């Protein structure tokens, strides 16, 4: 029953439709803009400026969606999920949980489970829209490589959204938690050129362009996958020891 109530909270507040709409919007607009960028620039009066632009490959087109999804869309998603995982500002609700619940898992596990389920559905919407646009522009594309890339993206999202949610539960500030996640991702991007760091960093899963070219390769993404799963276990363990009766 509590899982159903959590889902209805997402649905009736409109946040479920908002998240689906954002993923669909980012997938469609980013890929269409990337595909027609050359035509748009050529239609503008550039004077003597010589522009050397080529039509993107299907991998580059799909990568444009991954890039946008790893930036602003990750911030919005983390905030919405973190917001739904906290108890909110209701004093009565906080008092009820803190005085009656014996374990933080009974309070927060349904919230996190349903929220991550909503996130998974939104990632599916974005992935389907991105795949459809790619198929509309290109006759040939590798579905197996796209699926591998989307699964890696989902794991990357899981790490950062789960971290933001646990941080919001501990601090009671979902927006600050989302900003912290975004800052971490931006800083990690600066070190993406370092081979050792990129091999382990969960941020490499958010934009796994290599998977678009050759599919999932253990040498490229295996260590990042294992480290990401380890981090998820750590975050859930931290949630388990969250004191409900903390003042």
Write the layout of secondary structure elements.
Blueprint: H1 2-12, H2 15-35, H3 37-43, H4 58-69, H5 72-85, H6 91-100, H7 104-137, H8 143-171, H9 174-190, H10 195-200, H11 203-206, H12 209-214, H13 218-240
Helix pairs in contact: 1-7, 2-4, 2-7, 4-7, 5-7, 5-8, 5-9, 7-8, 8-9, 8-13
Give a description of the structure.
The structure is a single chain. The chain contains 13 helices and no strands. It has 247 residues and is mainly α. Helix 4 runs antiparallel to helix 7. The mean pLDDT is 83. The protein is 79% helix and 0% strand. The chain is globular.
Number of helical segments?
A: 13
Largest sheet, if any?
Answer: none
- The structural class is mainly alpha
Integer-rounded radius of gyration: 20 Å
Please state roughly what percent of the residues sit in beta strands, choosing from under 5%, 5-15%, 15-25%, 25-35%, 35-45% or over 45%: under 5%
Task: Indicate the overall shape.
Answer: globular
Find the count of extended strands (DSSP E, 2+ residues).
Answer: 0
Q: Helicity range of the residues? A: over 70%
What's the SSE pattern? HHHHHHHHHHHHH
Roughly how many Å apart are the termini? 28 Å
Catalogue the unreliable spans: none
Summed over residues and divided by their number, the pLDDT gives a mean of 83
Please supply descriptive tags for the structure shown above.
single chain, about 250 residues
């Amino acid at each position: 029953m509590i899982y159903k109530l959590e889902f209805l909270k997402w649905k009736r507040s409109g946040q479920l439709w908002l998240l689906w709409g954002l993923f669909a919007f980012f997938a469609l607009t980013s890929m269409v803009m990337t595909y027609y960028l050359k035509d748009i620039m050529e239609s503008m009066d550039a004077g003597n400026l010589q522009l050397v632009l080529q039509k993107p490959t299907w991998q580059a087109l799909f990568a444009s969606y991954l890039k946008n999804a790893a930036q602003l869309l990750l911030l919005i998603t983390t905030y919405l999920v973190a917001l739904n995982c906290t108890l909110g500002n209701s004093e009565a609700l906080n008092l009820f949980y803190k005085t009656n619940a014996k374990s933080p898992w009974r309070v927060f596990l349904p919230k996190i489970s349903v929220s991550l389920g909503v996130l998974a559905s939104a990632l599916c919407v974005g992935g389907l829209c991105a795949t459809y646009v790619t198929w509309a522009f290109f006759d040939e594309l590798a579905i197996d490589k796209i699926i591998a890339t989307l699964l890696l993206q989902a794991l990357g999202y899981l790490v950062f959204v789960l971290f933001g949610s646990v941080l919001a539960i501990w601090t009671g500030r979902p927006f600050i938690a989302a900003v912290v996640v975004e800052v971490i991702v931006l800083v990690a991007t600066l070190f993406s050129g370092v081979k050792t760091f990129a091999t382990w960093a969960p941020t490499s899963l958010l934009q796994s362009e290599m998977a678009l070219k050759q599919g999932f390769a253990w040498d490229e993404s295996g260590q990042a996958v294992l480290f990401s799963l380890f981090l998820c276990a750590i975050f859930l363990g931290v949630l388990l020891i969250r004191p409900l009766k903390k003042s």
